[in-house]
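Appendix B. Raw example, untouched.
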Amino acid sequence: MNSELAVLAASGATTLVSLMVTDSWTHARELVGRYLNRTGAAPDTFEDLQDARTRLLVTDATERERIACEISRRYGDRLRRLAEADAGSDEALRALLTSLQELSAATADTWRTVDNHISGGVQHGPVVQSGTVAGLTFHTHHVRRTDRQ
C-alpha cells in the first residue's frame, strides 16, 4: 500500500474520533458502517466503534486527549488493513475520508458566538441561558422588603 493511503487512513481516523463527540456522530457512523459492510469487516468492528465512542464520552477532560489518540491509532490501523485486504477499497476509503472531512468541516461551521443582554429592570436571581443544563442547583433566599408601603 502506498504511503499516501496510509496517511489518508490516519487522517480519516483522527477525523472520525473528532466526530465521535459531536452531534454529527450519527451521520459519521452511517458513513463508516457502509464502508465496513463494503469491505467485509468483522461485525464486532462496528460494535467496537460504538464502545470507543462511549469510552471517549465518559472520559474526563484530563484523559480525553490520550484516549482520543489511542482510538485514532487503532482505527487508523484498521482502516489501513481493510484497504490492504481489498484491492478495490482504495477509492472507497478515499471517498469515506473525504465525506468524513466534509462532515467535520460542516460541524465546525455550526458553532456561533452568542451575545446576550438582559433588559427590563432589575433581576432578583440567577439568569441562565444554555442549550443543556444538568445537575445545576440554585440556592436563593427571598428577602422581604420592608420599605414598601
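End of appendix B.
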